[in-house]
User: Fold these one by one.
Assistant:
Number 1:
Amino acid sequence: MSDTPATVPANAANLPERTKLLVFGLMAFGQFMALLDIQIVAGSLNAIQAGLSAGPDEIAWVQTAYLMAEIVMIPLAAFLSQAVSTRWLFTASAALFTLSSLTCGFAWDIDSMIVFRALQGFVGGAMVPLVFATGFTMFDGPRRALVPAILGVVSTLAPTLGPTVGGLITDIADWRWLFFINVIPGLAIAI
């Protein structure tokens, strides 16, 4: 056995194939969670409105705050990934997305929910472009061509399933579980 520490590949393209697939799969699932949460509350807005005693004009901000914050973060993610690295930004984004999901579940009024949803959208927004960048960096040839195809399916499927999944969760459990379900997968992705 050698006394030298194990070396880490200089870039993602030099990782073993299984590691690349695992990393890409976990990152794609993180993107799926961030995109699913855009619409997961859509089918449950009435339950959230009743639970938080919000008015009809206030409840729309639950969706709007998330989307506005996410749109701000998506272009900012390029700068931040250069400043702190893609790995650390994605990890921080997944961890903070999980934490903000938890806070959304514990929201006590409409104002706290709007703030927590904006935070959730902002930190979750970093995961979306980082998966594309990482996929194109790690893979080449025919596998690189699969990156936009796979992420395109994820990007389409997540918001499409969101209202249905959200409605089912609200019917089976409670609207707060729309956010609590992110905790375990979010921790797994961050780790």
Note: The chain has nine helices and no strands.
Number 2:
Amino acid sequence: MSNNCDCMKFVDLSHTFEEGMPGFRHENDDGTHTEYTAEVSPFFSHEESREKYDGKAAFEVTEMRFQTSMGTYLDSPYHRHPEGRDISELEIGELILPGTVVDARGLGGDEELTTDALPREDDLAGSAVLFNFGWDKNWGSEEYRSYPYISEAVIERLIAADVSLVGVDTLNADDHENPTRPAHTRLLDKEIFIVENLCNLDSLVGESFRFYA
């Protein structure tokens, strides 16, 4: 890059991964709920390891326990379809894409986004389309669990537009009340990857950028 160009800017779109972070919730048969989160702790600490190195060095090795749908993450086709590719089978070039942010702020919890919000289909082919509901402001609160989502009509438009990836700043691209999970079912079947629990999309509204998953 020449000296007279603007400096490149990076925006971190992922939530901090940490002990006790917000996770997902499953309803049990008896109506109670199980909360999932990340557990992060020393496997052995500096003090515990020091004697192994005759007091001349010390190291910490950290142990982490968590479920894959935790924090900001990418869903590959295998997440929904057993015959689909898993994360290890994706090529890195498939996950570095021109990005577009759809400004979907203003919707409330459990409201669906309609196709009126989408840009022209011919502008979306091969891109990462990220939906900015502004929901990351609720991260860690009970309100975060009741979120806006993309409608089935939007899902079909995204497929028709030949997008490569769909992202949301909510807990789920799908309506949690719809057991058919149309976003995960339809998008992942077409090898359109999904990223959930994004954040900081406000700063990219109206901007041209490259998205790195």
Note: The chain has a mean pLDDT of 94.
